[in-house]
Amino acid sequence: MDGEVGEKCGLAGIYLKNTFKDVSLERRLHCVDSLITMGNSLQHRGQFSAGVATYQPLFEKSFGKVILDHKDLGTIRKVFHLDNPEAYKSLIGRLAGIAGLFHTRYSTSGEQTDFEKVKLEMQPFERDHKRIWKQFWFAFNGNVANHKELRAKLSGEDYIFKTGVDTEDFSSLFALEMNKEPIFDASGGRPDLFNVVKRVMGQIDGAYNVGLIFGDGDLLFFRDPNGFRPLVWGENEDFYAIASESVALQKIGINRFKDVVPGSALLFDRYGVKQSPVLIESKKSLCHFERIYFAKAPSDLDGEYVAGTRQRLGRELAKVDPLVGRILEEKNGRK
User: Fold this and answer.
1) CA angle 163, 218, 67 (to 5 degrees)
2) Which of 23, 27, 172, 208 would you label with 283, given CA atoms 20 to 30 Å apart?
3) Helix or strand run (H / E) with residue 166
4) Is 279 in contact with 266 (CB distance < 8 Å)?
5) Residue 325 is part of which domain span?
6) Has residue 286 been placed in a domain?
């Protein structure tokens, strides 16, 4: 796809529990530190750029943004100053919040050298709006096969674009469908996000996981109906958390996790977690390259460690191509 740099990216999200009782600075710092820890365990899924967006409720009425972000080109260690304790402390102090969204981005060979343009493509993408529930930050792992058709449709709706990447088309489609969905709360609340996701899924041809954090702090993730990319979630006493791979959850002490069902969505908010039913039926088709190449060896995909799958594949390959026997024959032939 024009301008796109790859599909092997990493996503993570986190939502602090018991925010009705305690939103102390200590807990908010712990939240963003845990999010970056999760993200750092996904470094293998992308080394080109990284970013976060965190929700910081205004405790006193004032003007200002409730979502703050930080993103840059480079590895996660570089972007988040992980080798500079003072700089890292200052950064998480600025970003301290009760919920957050993380993205690390993959690049292919022949990367663009127009860095001003590339910076516009870093995620999470921000879609600003004066109504707080219509603001969102959008992160994406995958690709959209009907990218050109989608852009043409959105251009016809008077949407304008700053980049050539399909991520921007996807986020624009979500904004369009959110505007079309009726408001279910007469007091002015937002539309049913699960209905919005269903409408969006019906128009996207591709492989994807998507994460969004809204201006009111709600965190939404959904997985494509075929389940091409892995996505797992879990919880402990402190957080709800979701990520591209189980190793990210384990890094913050969550050792029991569940796959997000393909074609479904999860919404995390101050009241807990809501799971949609399957919104669009399809057959699960996890990409083979996740097991062979993309995923980290200790990750659990569909109840089985990636390392175990790779070992079994190696044993099967050895039956087809017994390399040891060939090496012995070559050695004997040289004698």
Assistant:
1) 55
2) 172
3) helix 166-180
4) no
5) 304-334
6) yes
